[in-house]
Amino acid sequence: MKISMKWLAKYVDLPESPQKLAERETVTGIEVDEIIYPAEGLKNIVVGQILTLEAHPDSDHLNICQVAIGEQQPYQIVCGAPNVAEGQKVIVALPGARIVNNQKIKKSKMRGVESRGMLCSLQEIGFNENVVPDEFKDGIYVFPENETITVGESVFPYLGMDDTILNFDATPNRADVLGMRGAAWEVASMYDQKPHFTVPDVPEETEMADSKFTNEVFDNNLAPTYRNRIVTNVKVQPSPLWLQIYLWNNGIKPINNIVDITNYVLLDYGQPLHAYDFDKLGSKKLTVRNAENGETFKALNDNEYELTDQDIVIVNDEQAVSLAGVMGGQSTSIDAQTKTVVLESAVFDSIRVRKTAQRHNLRTEAAARFEKGIDVATTQEALDQAAQLVQTLADGKVLAGQVVGSQTNLEPTIVKITIEQINHALGTNIKQEEIIAIFERLGFTVQVEADILVVTVPLRRWDISIPADLIEEVVRIYGFDKLPSTLPVSTQTVGGYTTQQQFLRNGKTFLRSLGYDEAISYALTTEEKAQAFTVEQSTLTKVDWPMTRDHEYLRLNLVSGLLDDLAYNVARKQTNVALFEQGRVFVKSQSSAVRPTEVEMLAGAITGTVQEQTWETKARLVNFYDVKGDVEQLINSFNKQGRISYQATTSITQLHPGQSALIMMDDQCIGFIGTVHPVYAQQLKLPVTIVFQLNLDKIMALTDQSQIYVPASKFPSITRDVAILVPKNVTNEAIDDTIRQAAGKYLTDIKLFDIYVGTGVPAKYKSMAYSLTFQNKQETLTDAVVNQHFTKVQTALQNILGAKIR
């Protein structure tokens, strides 16, 4: 809630600066998230009046304006706004002025004509596009003719930009400060004051409202309070400037005087109101009921919604004219032809309003208040306030009486507490008189019965219902800084990570050392992304109340989220990105299972160059083998027993069929690695991208590998090279296994150093060259022994794989 200091000062005498007030308010429990100075960074912006206007000789849309700014001679300013006209009072940025984004205005020439300054729109002096009235969105701002505006003076006071705005970040239980009057009670209690409010006085006509209009509430649980007033002979026109200022300083766009009045009362009382065009209602009756399944409703935002029987609607016996507590309907909207207005003030079922707003993705100021709660004691007064303003600002005539469909119980809450309870909870020794004074500052009434305080809580503080709530109020006003400081008494234990926590942290630390950055993605995603990049079959888990349609299913993989993160970065020209995520996926082996099994996973995704271009090297894009090396180092860092191998696969359709493999530890699949399929990458607008995913639960379950120190050998090693021709379908792994089985105990290393296909090599064959290293750590190895083992290797390659020795 944005709190205008000028508006607040109408209700409370403010003894301190906005900064001091913000500090005190934050200490008492409601954080002031931001202090806004609307005119900050702007200067030399004044009110001007256009004296004459003529078309620019070299342009079909520019005009040359002579503008009075309070000096002896007018300024010549060239302007291209479509709504510029003679006689208008406008916003003028003089030469040397600073407008939005610290842009400096200078004297210039526009197509050969000198221009001294600039005629400004509201957006150009810092107003958000969303609050600018529709008539000024595409042009300059023009001050209303009926307002007293002095030419040459600063525009800031006339536009409310000399105000200071405090942004109250109220917690959900403190919705009472979502209105200026509630905020005034909060601030007044800090300074031991009582806010001073005016009570609306509505002169009424002799004709009774209920003789012209009726209402009905089918179920009082839907609308515990429902009231209407009728105002006739209204004149719909723009609101006065003071009212528009209050609205746009709170982020609300002015529409017309009737709609603006309902929004003003919402900001003042925290009570949402709605206005209907009486002549468009047809039946002259409003009924509150549940919607019917499949019933349609066209809202003020021009969107049509299909309703369910969980929505509350207000109907005119023919169709829904309002989605209760959320948004009004297009069919009864206020326009320039409206003559009679039906004002509505109500209390709707907060749970249904919240679910309706969520179901239809309609987040409005009204819904935000209804779902958190409103002051039921001011529903009637807020309606009278709106009727009085319509009478004043729209020349309306208010018919006698309010039409009441339902009225909730207005009995205040009574809570009993003792001084001992309060002091025991706070560790203080506050006297009874001081505690009673605190309650009275908050507007509570107190009666003393023996040693019990009987506290009557006003309806505007519906968040208070138990003794603990009263204790919280006492300490807020008394001061948290006054509480005694004591050290906790407990058994001290040495903290530490569990084995699993340390294992997960080690994996993340190692990937950071390889240059990967950690990302955190939503566990909820779309159906397609949730089941992509999976090795094992699993049933998806769908949530009943998703926050959006893009977050309906629990993920079965981490890669989809990483690819979304990569796409986000690439779209913003960050093309060399390596990300990883450690998190859980949610697997259900049977569709009948209620809850999924949570499995710890670790995934990575990388795109871009791994070697930048320099004077001696060329840039090189990441490839499958770069990431394969990272994965092998990562798995080795876990220090688990088992031989790492790779098994080509085409089962993961989102990966390139020729560049993807399952990662095996002995005979168990622990993950996969591969290049993202070009078609899938194109959909995400990604270049070549390599991904991997490891099942950490499976890896953690493996036996740890003992670390034994082995000293470096004192004896030399001997190498032998072998080049062979093998069919193209023979894998490096098969050759490696064959060599290891035949080479004997002295083989210490195998390195593939060449692969060749082309001239001199038969079709469907490939040439592969290996370097074998032999070493005896006990004595010097002789050539004769090495040759004996090398011969066995050549024989095995020929007999087992059909290789030809080159």
Cross-sheet strand order for the largest sheet: 28-31-32-38-37-36-35
- pLDDT averaged over residues: 93
- Give the count of structural domains: 6
CATH superfamily of the largest domain, called what? Phenylalanyl-trna Synthetase, Chain B, domain 3
Cα-based radius of gyration, to the nearest Å: 38 Å
CATH architecture of the largest domain: 3-Layer(bba) Sandwich
Write down the CATH topology of the largest domain: Phenylalanyl-tRNA Synthetase, Chain B, domain 3
Strand content: 25-35%
Largest sheet: 7 strands, mixed
**Distance linking N and C termini:** 81 Å
By secondary-structure content and strand pairing, the structural class works out as alpha+beta
Oligomer: single chain
Count of DSSP strands: 42
Query: What shape does the CA trace take?
Result: elongated
CATH class of the largest domain: Alpha Beta
- Fraction in helix: 25-40%
List the total number of helices. 20
Show unreliable segments: none
Binding site for Mg(2+): 463, 469, 472-473
Subcellular location: Cytoplasm
Domain B5: 410-485
Catalytic activity: tRNA(Phe) + L-phenylalanine + ATP = L-phenylalanyl-tRNA(Phe) + AMP + diphosphate + H(+)
